[in-house]
Amino acid sequence: MSQSNSILWSFDVDGKNFDSAGFASQSTKFKLRQLGLNGDIIKRVAIAMYEGEINMVIHAEGGVANVEVDEDKIIITLTDTGKGIADIEQAMREGFSTATEEIRDLGFGAGMGLPNMKKNSDELIIDSAVGKGTKVTMIFAI
Amino acid sequence: MKAKELADKLGLKVFCGDCECEITGYYVGDLLSWVMGRADEGNCWITIMNNLNVCAVAKLLSFSCVVLCEKVLPDEKLLEKAKAQNITLLGSDDAVFATCKAICDLNC
After folding, report:
1. Probe site for chain A from B33, B52, B79 (most A CB atoms < 10 A)
2. Which residue of chain B has the CA closest to A118?
3. Span A30-53, average pLDDT
4. Nearest to A104 by CA among A18, A15, A32
5. Sorting pLDDT into bands at 50, 70 and 90, what band is A88?
6. pLDDT at residue A47 is higher than 70
7. Structural domains of chain A, with CATH
8. Which positions of chain B have pLDDT values less than 70?
9. A128: alpha, beta or left, given left = phi > 0 and alpha = psi -120 to 50?
10. Is the reported ipTM for this assembly greater than 0.90?
11. Domain ranges of chain B
């Protein structure tokens, strides 16, 4: 439940558009810096959020990225209505990727996206249903 | 060393940027997520990737500069974005290994 003193913002992530990918995470990095958070947490949030954004661009038709900053934590929620993840355990494995050759040519598809999100956040919760979409929640303790 | 000094000493092309950032380390890689997971702030990033996403990664990790090797030119969108975000984008005619060796020779 959001507390009254939390700060919220959100972005629409455009699917299949690599030109705008990174906008949400870069804007969030800038806002967190304005809020005076330390460099380490900003870097972790920015990396994890960019990975999430890219996943939404590659695998879903975009979605919504919500950021909530409380006194003691940052919560990033990435929601899409894409194809979903069939096997989350497999998707979490470093090196596993279902990205196409075209996506790999852009420098993605290393199978590091979800592992990077897990590594950089304090808590990662993935809720996914095949054919319906995915909701990724990342929590960062301040 | 500032990016400008690196560019001068190695004869690198300056595609854009003020070259004023201090290089605090180096990282080599082309897979963006891999780079993001391992490189550090202030790094000079050596790569052959030349698309727009290079900008996002360079900005998110606050790299000091990016060196495109093998005579690779930044694509139009990357150059435009890098200029807008004041990212120092350099170019080397040499392969990645030779570029890294030249940097190591400078630092030894």
Report:
1. B33
2. B37
3. 94
4. A18
5. very high
6. yes
7. 7-141 (3.30.565.10)
8. 108
9. beta
10. no
11. 3-107
